[in-house]
Amino acid sequence: MTASLNMPEPPDQQWLNEWQQLNKNGIDALYQANFEDAEKFLSAALAMAENNERKQTEFSTSLINLGSLRQQQGKFNEAETLNLKALAIREKLFGHDHPMIALCLNNLATLYDEQGKYEQAETLYKKALTIDETNLGVNHIDVAKDLNNLAVLYRNQGRYSDAEALYQRVIAIVRQSPDADPLEVAAILNNLALVYSKQKKLVEAQSLYLESIEIVEKVAGPTHPLLAKALHNLARFHQSQGNFAEAETLCLRGLVIEEKTLGSNHPNLASYLSNLAGLCCAQRKFDSAEPLYLRAIKIGEEAWGPKHASVAKSIHNLALLYTELGRYEDAEPLFVKALAIDEDALGSDHPDLAVDLEGFAYLLSRTNRQEEAVKLAQRAATIRAIKR
User: Most buried pick, 7, 21, 111, 144, via CB within 10 A?
Assistant: First the structure.
């Protein structure tokens, strides 16, 4: 009987296994919003690839992964530098029209979209789409992902008809693709439902929300984070229709899922808590809303730091609550703080800044400072008029 041999892996395979494990650990930590561990693992993977001239593809991937961490941390300039470096490496390796380039362009476009640099984002999304359509064909699943990214941008800009047309094309591709992930299909249906909600196509919106929820529950079970997102979006839909009891039930169910799957301090919870607080405000349950906003701020500050734009959003919402309660002295420093954070994090002409300015102007108007209120409202109007 011949003894089996346990042959050692070739050095290159050993290197690749170690590098892949570091990346996996880093991405898993990033998903859990454990930025400290994500930094440790992703930086180690980057150092491994950076010191190996034969591993430039892996080096570019490490740059992209670390860029994702920086983007989630709100460090947009650092994220841009890392993604541009990855793009330059891949263009040197693969040329300018390879699907690997499309991936880099999509990452950069997403970064610009988040900063409100919509014109730059649209150019890159369209370039990525052209590359993938040329190389992969117009019905490839990666083309559907490109179209979805562009549709999200149009939705953010309020270009709902353009977004709807793209989503319809995406759905046509994914419904006939054997490679389509059912959870991605559910996410796309959810996105189109959001557009229909904005267009006041209420029957169509509700139908897609329910279909999205049904798919996630069937494929991933009743505790998947995507289900929580779909439930929260359906809750906001019901809130817009004045169905507050139904909205609150859905919102609480989504919140329980998020806490169970991600933990009680995950930053995703902050937006859901703010949504629930907003629902409480709509029902004039102000005493219930305040602790929810305060918890959202605390979670955000602990996860991202006190100068992140997502923290500013919760601070702004709390300031609006205090304004409604007549607690003007509590509200004003919060408006000032939110405005300063967003201006520093997003720049002086981001659309979110207009929201900050309009809220602050409302407070100034309530406290009989009309001249100051008008100045802020005019600045907000100027920002909103910018072609993006």
Answer: 144
